[in-house]
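Example 9 (inverse folding). The structure is encoded as follows.
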């Protein structure tokens, strides 16, 4: 009995000694060092994340190592330069002077009404058209302070420096249609007429019915719903969102076939050999397409529904053209806008998509309607 008891005492003593040895041999990181290490790692992560979401500085035309300046340019009120391209008859001979405003991911070379109009129509009517690179596109300097009003003032200053007279016409395509809304809002006294071709709609414009905006928004692909949502709520993430490889980015920027209607797919062949497409984003994607999206889907201080008729005495006219099968700009909200602005001449094209201005004969119809000629 005594021997058994002594063995139990010895075994218990051995286990106790082993536990003490184990405890004494384990390493404990002081809590202060652990907290410091975690803080350093967190700060490092934040620094990495900040670098990832920051767009690179613009590669401005004419700067050391930047793209060359090949287009004629004007110098604006704030020192920026605006590049332009002239079409049609010489402006001193022209009866009608038109400023063409390009859409998203385009440039001065994408002036569809100028490119597709018959030379005979241009000559017979005496039409002069000037297209320009919007800020950050092509060879126009980026505008880090760009606002809804500033782009309208750019249009006005372009007209003044080129000597287009006290009044001129504006034609805007897609995202360029938003620029035309801004011209109607901020410089209506300078306009002889305006045409909006499938103008992009901002789902956050005040006074648009929530049920209609929800319906139209739900028709977009999930990738585009997210891209639009990011541009509106977290514009500082737009560059990262549209350049990262984890999730699909904006369909319009990647030219996904999902955004094209049946008619668009037939017309797109006319655009695939565009030799000037490299010019569009040569100064940086953020300063061109990403800033464009941010402003287009930002919180505007007004809505097109606030705009008053700029031609109360019918001395000019405003026209809005829309394809009813447009997958980029859905027709539902467009119909609501024109129903509440009865002074707009609305033209809805059955079976047409977003690229309808490129269809044969359409530009001629658009321009003749705008100018009020047959």
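The amino acid assigned to each position is listed next.
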């Amino acid at each position: 009995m005594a021997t058994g008891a002594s063995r139990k005492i010895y075994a218990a003593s051995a286990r106790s000694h082993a536990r003490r040895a184990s405890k004494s041999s384990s390493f404990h990181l002081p809590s202060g060092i652990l907290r410091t290490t975690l803080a350093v790692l967190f700060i490092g992560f934040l620094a990495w994340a900040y670098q990832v979401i920051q767009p690179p500085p613009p590669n401005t035309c004419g700067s050391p190592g930047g793209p060359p300046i090949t287009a004629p340019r004007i110098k604006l009120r704030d020192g920026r330069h605006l590049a332009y391209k002239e079409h049609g008859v010489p402006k001193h001979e022209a009866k009608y002077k038109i400023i063409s405003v390009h859409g998203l991911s385009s440039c001065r070379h994408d002036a569809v009404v100028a490119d597709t109009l018959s030379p005979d129509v241009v000559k017979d009517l005496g039409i002069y058209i000037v297209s320009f690179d919007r800020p950050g596109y092509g060879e126009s300097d980026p505008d880090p302070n760009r606002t809804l009003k500033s782009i309208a003032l750019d249009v006005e200053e372009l007209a003044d420096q080129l000597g287009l007279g006290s009044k001129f016409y504006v034609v805007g395509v897609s995202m360029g249609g938003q620029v035309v809304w801004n011209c109607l809002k901020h410089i209506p006294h300078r306009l002889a007429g305006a045409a909006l071709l499938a103008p992009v709609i901002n789902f956050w414009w005040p006074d648009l019915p929530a049920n209609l905006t929800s319906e139209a928004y739900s028709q977009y692909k999930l990738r585009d719903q997210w891209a639009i949502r990011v541009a509106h709520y977290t514009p500082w993430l737009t560059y990262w969102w549209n350049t990262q490889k984890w999730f699909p980015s904006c369909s319009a920027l990647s030219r996904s076939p999902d955004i094209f209607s049946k008619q668009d797919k037939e017309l797109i062949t006319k655009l695939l050999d565009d030799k000037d497409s490299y010019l569009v984003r040569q100064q940086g994607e953020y300063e061109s397409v990403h800033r464009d999206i941010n402003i287009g889907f930002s919180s505007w201080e007004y809505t097109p529904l606030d705009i008053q008729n700029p031609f109360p005495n019918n001395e000019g006219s405003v026209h809005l053209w829309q394809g009813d099968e447009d997958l980029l700009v859905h027709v539902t909200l467009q119909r609501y806008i024109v129903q509440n602005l009865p002074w707009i001449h609305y033209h809805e094209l059955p079976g047409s998509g977003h690229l309808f201005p490129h269809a044969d004969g359409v530009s001629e119809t658009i321009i003749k309607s705008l100018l009020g000629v047959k």
